[in-house]
Amino acid sequence: MTDTIEVDALTEAQASTELAHLAKAIAKANAAYHTDDAPEISDAAYDDLKRRNAAIEARFPQLKRADSPSDQVGAPVAEGFSKVTHAVAMLSLANAFDDDDVAEFDQRIRKYLGMDAKAALSYTAEPKIDGLSLSLRYENGELVQAATRGDGAVGENVTANARTIENVPQRIAGAPELLEVRGEVYMSHPDFEALNERQAEAGQKTFANPRNAAAGSLRQLDANITRARPLRFFAYAWGALSDPLADTQMGAIQRLEAFGFQTNPLTRLCDGTQDMIAHYRHIEQERATLGYDIDGVVYKVNDLALQSRLGFRSTTPRWAVAHKFPAELAWTRLDAIDIQVGRTGALSPVARLTPVTVGGVVVSNATLHNEDYIAGRDSKGGVIRDGKDIRVGDWVQVYRAGDVIPKIADTDVSKRPQDAVAFQFPHRCPECGSDAIREEGDAVRRCTGGLICPAQAVEKLKHFVGRSAFDIEGLGAKQVEMFYHDDQLPIRTPADIFSLKDRDARNLSKLANRDGWGETSARNLFNAIEERRKVPLGRVIFALGIRHVGEVAANDLARHYTTWPSFALAVDTAAPAAECQLQADAAEVAEREQAAQEGRRARIKPVRDAAWADLPADARAAWLDLTGIDGIGASVATALVTTFQQEAERQSIDALISGLDIQEAEARTTADSPVAGKTVVFTGTLEKMTRAEAKARAETLGAKVSGSVSAKTDLLVAGPGAGSKAKKAADLGVETIDEDGWLELIEAL
C-alpha cells in the first residue's frame, strides 16, 4: 500500500495507483454516508482520504482522474425517490483543521480580492450542524418542493417528508416570489435517545448517532414514518432567489429568521481570524450542552458583494470554510463517577457524561482507569495532566480513537463548580461491603469478597459464557443477569448452567412458561448448553476467569499440559512454590528497605534462597515447569495456584469439570513453522476466514497473537479497511502482508 509513503516520495506510477484506490474508497464512503445513511468509516478517516487525494493531485496534476473525488459532492440519489435538479448547485465546503488553516483561508481571500492584510474584513461564524442538507423551494410564499443535496446537482424529492417537519413553515409572508431556503435537518439528543428506545422495544434497528437517525428518517419512502420521527430544521443559506434577501450574510440570516425559520442563535459576526477562532473555542466548549450534534464551525465572508466576486471552485465556494472539530475529541460535563466491580474484584471508576458525539458515536460513559488517574498521577506516583484531579461537575475532554473505550484526556479547572470536591475512592466494595484493598505493585483496588460478592459472581459468569470461552448461544449477559437473580432456577456458578435442564424438569414453574421465553427458545437454550459439554481444554482454562490468564495464556497452558488432569495436578503440586514466591518477594522488599536505611547494598540472593530453602523437590519442579512456559510468569502461576487453593473456588471448578467432556489439546509442533515465536497482529477485514480462525491457526503454529502493533510485533496481516495499525506498522518497519499472503504462508505447512 502506497498510503504509508510520504506524498513527496511517491513515484508517478505509485501515485497513479493510489489515486485509483482513493477514488474507489472515497466513492464507497460517500455512498455509505449520503445514500445509505450507514457510514462505514469515521469522519476523521474520510477526511484523511480526501486530504491525501488532494495532496497527490497537487503534486501530480497530470494524473487527476475523470472521477476525481475532488470534483464530487455527496453521492447519487437512491432508488425510490424522484430526482430534482437544483437550480443553484448545493456545494460542499472546504475544510480547515487547525488555526493555521483558518489564517490561510483569510489570507487567500485577501489575496484574491487584492485587500491589504490590515483592511477590515468581517465574517459570520456559526455551528456546523451534523445532519442532512435540505433545500426548500417556496413560490409566492408557499412550500412547493423539498430536495436533498444528492450529488450537488441532482437531489432526491422529499417534499412529502419535509412537510412533516414541525418547524418547516408551509407558507411564509413577505418573501420573494421565488425563494430556496437551505439548511440542515437534524435530531436533538433527547429525541434521538427516545427514538432508539422505541426502536429497541419494537425489535427494530437502532441508530449509531443523531445524524444517521435524521438522515434515515427524512429519506423514508413512507412519509408517515418520517412524521413519527422528531426531526427539526436549521436554516443557514439560500439557493435560487427572485430578489436579494439582504446585502450581508448576517442580514440574510436575520431575514430568514423573520420569515419564521429557525436559525442558529450562536451565529456571530467576527472581525478577522482572532475573533473567528475565539468563537470556535467558545462553541467547542458549549458543544455538549447544545442538545444537538455539531462537528465544527463554518466561517463565511459577510459581505455578499464580496462573496459574488470570490465565486466558486468546482465543488466549494471560495468565500466559506468549515473549521472542523478534532474527530475523536470533544468537551462535555462529568455528571457522576460510578464504581463498577469486575470479575477479578477490580474496582473500576466509570465517568457518567452529558452525552456527546465523538468519532461518530454518542458517548455517555468513559473509563477513568483507577484511583491514581482520577487524582492526577500515574501508578508510580508521577504527575499527569499537570497534577489536575478529576471531579464530578468538571468539564472534561473525551477522546475515542478507533473502536476503543472512550477515555478522559483532560479537565478544565477554570470551569470547575465552586462546590466540587475531590473524589474519595471507596475502600469498601460498593456491591458487598467487603474490604477493597490495593496490593503492592497493583494499579487497582480489589474487593476481597470473592464469590460472596454478587458483582464478581455475575461478571465471572458473563465471562464464562463469552464468545472466546464457552460461547453458549442464547445465554448472553442479559440472560446471565436474569438467571443469577432468579430464585426458582438460579445460575450462581458455572456448574449450575449444565444442571439447568434437569432442574427445570423438576420445577413446577417451567422456563418455557416465563415472560420472554417459550417452548422453542427454552429447548434451544438447553440444546446449546448440551453442545458445549464437549469443549477444548484451552477454552475451559480461559473461561474460569482467573486473573492474568487471558486467551493466549490459556491456550499456551492447554498445549503444554494437553489434559485437564495433568494441568490441575501441576497447579496443585506447585502450590507450595507459589507461597515461597510470595515470601521471597516480601523478603526482597524488606531487605531493600533495610539496606537503604543502613546505607549498604541489598543482599537479594541470600534472602530469596532462604525463602525457597525448604521447598519440596516436586513442588519446585512443578513451579519451574509452569513458569518455564513461554508467556507464563510468576504472576500468572501465582494467580492459578491462588484460585485453585481457595476452597469455595475449587469446589465450584471441580463441580463444573465433573459435568464436562474436555477435549485433549494438541501439543504444539512448530519446528518447521516460520511464525513460531513471532508476534502477529491481524487488522482490517478478513474475507476468507474469521478472525477467530486466523488467530487459532497462528497460535497452533507457535505464534503469539496480539491486538495492537508495537516494536515487538513481527508481522501484521492487513485486510481491507486496515487503518491506524497499518500506518503504525509501516512507521515501525513491521513486515506487512495481506490475507492471501498469510494463507500462502500457512498453507505450505
Distance between the termini: 27 Å
How large is the radius of gyration? Answer: 31 Å
* Count of DSSP-assigned helices: 27
- Biggest sheet record: 5 strands, mixed
Please state how the strands of the largest beta sheet are arranged side by side.
2-11-10-3-9
The count of domains is 5
The portion of residues assigned to helices is 25-40%
Can you identify the CATH superfamily of the largest domain?
Answer: DNA ligase/mRNA capping enzyme
The CATH class assignment of the largest domain is: Alpha Beta
State which percent range the strand residues make up.
Answer: 15-25%
Structure description:
It is a single chain. The protein is α+β, with helices and mostly antiparallel strands and 749 residues long. It folds into 5 domains: 2-72, Orthogonal Bundle (Helix Hairpins); 94-324, DNA ligase/mRNA capping enzyme (D-amino Acid Aminotransferase, Chain A, domain 1, 2-Layer Sandwich), CATH 3.30.470; 333-437, OB fold (Dihydrolipoamide Acetyltransferase, E2P) (Beta Barrel), CATH 2.40.50.140; 533-663, DNA polymerase, domain 1 (Orthogonal Bundle); 679-747, Rossmann fold (3-Layer(aba) Sandwich), CATH 3.40.50.10190. 39% of the residues lie in helices and 18% in strands. The chain contains 27 helices and 24 strands. The strands form 7 sheets. It has a 5-stranded mixed β-sheet. β13 (347-358) and β14 (361-367) form a beta hairpin. α17 packs across α18 and α20 packs antiparallel against α21. The model has no long low-confidence stretch (mean pLDDT 87).
